[in-house]
Write a structure and sequence with these properties.
Elements lengths: L13 H6 L9 H6 L4 E2 L6 E2 L3 E3 L4 H10 L4 E4 L14 E4 L6 E5 L4 E5 L8 H6 L15 H6 L16 E7 L5 E4 L5 H7 L8 E8 L5 E10 H6 L1 H7 L2 E6 L5 E10 L13 H14 L3 H13 L6 E4 H4 L8 E9 L3 H15 L8 E5 L14 E9 L5 H13 L3 E2 L9 H4 L6 H11 L8 H7 L6
Parallel strand pairs: 3-5, 4-5
Antiparallel strand pairs: 1-2, 6-7, 7-10, 8-9, 8-10, 11-13, 11-14, 12-13, 12-16, 15-17, 15-18, 16-17
Helix pairs in contact: 9-10, 12-13
Length: 463
């Protein structure tokens, strides 16, 4: 497959490009060791000490860095992935200097952003431009590039992940080539790069297909989990967006519906995080964990006393929540129709074995797409998330639950913890071979592979 040469951006002088790279220069190994800066993710579960951390201020600088350096390069966003996508002893490339809206088209309702833009900083400029993201996840800490790299998603049977709404992007390959990709230009690369795990190159700008601004009415209540599962088909069809949050070691869940409305705004959504609720669950777990029946009764009673005010506001002010309690997370997407049975097995296992965790689960629906490495490729999905407080070891808990996901042909969220490698993953994705062949073509030397990704793709690191 022919790859187009770099654009005029790459033709900028090497000197100018080098000057635009923060903290990168061909210094001696001894000098580099003196300023090594450790990296860790949000939960503290992933760590590394890279040889260098760079924050380029231009695409030309990134292209020059890739063309004139050696060794592993891993792009890093907001460090909110729980899986080992980032760690390397090579070079970490942050796009923190490339943020904000580049431009927008009022006729097509598209907007282009620098890839390092935090999702939390997209809502207001889009609103001012007469646009809004079609759907959003329940947190907005991620960068745009990180969100599409891992197929991050919200909920709603009619809505895909962020990646499904990408209409164009720019990719800089390991050789420094700058490729503009969309359905007409480099379509094969475009299709794969919408969910790439950062394994095809560095994405620098992303064009999103949006819609007109809209308001959302969020309603939350507590209900028996079995009742919700029996009624799940109606709830997911009658609401624009529906999810529920099963509380472990109990019989109840928090149910959340998000429906579009023309009703006037309520008071702004509360800005506080999960601290009080998590502390309550932590204390119940600590002091009543040895008495499962008593704990279940106590959690049931406490949950039913919770009050959740309705919220109506612009969509980008409603979808996201504050998550100020750190945790590690595993998430799998099973076929939509398998969601209820899969959840029932997880909840039963937790109760039967009195597994050591107190953070609630999440249960959401997502529309199918045609992206090779999307968890929703070729099928509508039900995503079920399992959490463990950062204070507790997650290994045994996740290991006990994970085989249930495998039973239902679950696909792991790329940004969250899982134990699968290429042997298992290749059987879950119809276009797996297409993606891996393209990855080998764009990055034959494995510049963008760390140990985790070498296992995921079943190849060895060459650097």
């Amino acid at each position: 497959m022919a790859v187009t040469r770099r654009t005029v951006l790459k033709q900028l002088s090497t000197a100018a490009a080098l000057g635009a790279v923060t903290s990168w220069s061909p210094v001696s190994a001894a000098a580099r060791r003196r300023r090594l800066i450790p990296w860790s993710n949000w939960s503290g579960g992933q760590r590394c000490i890279p040889a260098q951390r760079v924050a380029p201020t231009s695409e030309a600088a990134i292209a020059d860095l890739l063309e004139n350096s050696r060794g592993v390069v891993r792009p890093v966003g907001a460090s909110h992935s729980f899986s080992a996508l980032v760690p390397t002893d090579g070079t970490l490339v942050s796009l923190a200097q490339l943020t904000g809206m580049i431009g927008h088209n009022p006729d097509t309702l598209e907007a282009e952003f620098w890839a390092g833009t935090p999702m939390s900083q997209m809502g207001q400029p889009l609103h001012e431009a007469g646009q809004a993201l079609v759907n959003m996840a329940d947190i907005d800490y991620q960068t745009l590039a990180g969100a599409i790299a891992t197929s991050t998603h919200g909920t709603g049977i009619d809505y895909g992940s962020y990646s499904a709404y990408v209409s164009g992007l720019r990719l800089i390959t390991a050789s420094g080539d700058v490729l503009d990709c969309d359905a007409e230009n480099n379509p094969e690369i475009f299709s794969a790069a919408r969910v790439s795990l950062g394994a095809l190159g560095v994405i620098t700008r992303i064009r999103m297909k949006n819609r007109q601004p809209f308001r959302v009415h969020e309603q939350t209540w507590v209900q028996d989990t079995n009742e919700l599962l029996e009624d799940v088909d109606r709830l997911r069809k009658e609401n624009d967006r529906f999810e529920f949050i099963p509380i472990l070691h109990s019989d109840v869940s928090l149910c959340v519906t998000l429906n579009e409305t023309n009703d006037p705004n309520t008071l702004p959504k509360e800005g506080g995080g999960d601290g009080d609720k998590v502390s309550l669950l932590r204390n119940v777990h600590k002091y009543a964990g040895g008495f499962p029946n008593a704990r279940a009764s106590l959690v049931n009673t406490l949950a039913k006393q919770m009050d959740f005010p309705d919220v109506i506001d612009q969509s980008y002010k409603v979808f996201a929540n504050v998550r100020d309690q750190r945790f590690n997370e595993m998430e799998y997407t099973v076929p939509a129709e398998a969601g209820p049975d899969c959840l029932r097995e997880i909840m039963a296992l937790v109760r039967k074995k009195n597994l050591n965790s107190f953070l609630p689960l999440e249960y959401r629906y997502i529309k199918a797409d045609d992206i090779p490495l999307s968890m929703f490729s070729g099928r509508d999905g039900c995503a079920i998330s399992v959490h463990q407080s950062y204070e507790l070891d997650y290994h045994n808990f996740f290991a006990a639950v994970e085989p249930i996901f495998w039973k239902y042909e679950g696909r792991p969220h790329w940004g969250k913890l899982h134990s699968l490698n290429a042997a298992q993953l290749s059987k879950l994705y119809p276009q797996w071979q297409d993606f891996t062949a393209l990855r080998e073509e764009l990055d034959p030397d494995g510049r963008f592979l760390n140990g985790h990704l070498a296992s995921v793709f079943g190849t060895r690191m060459r650097n």
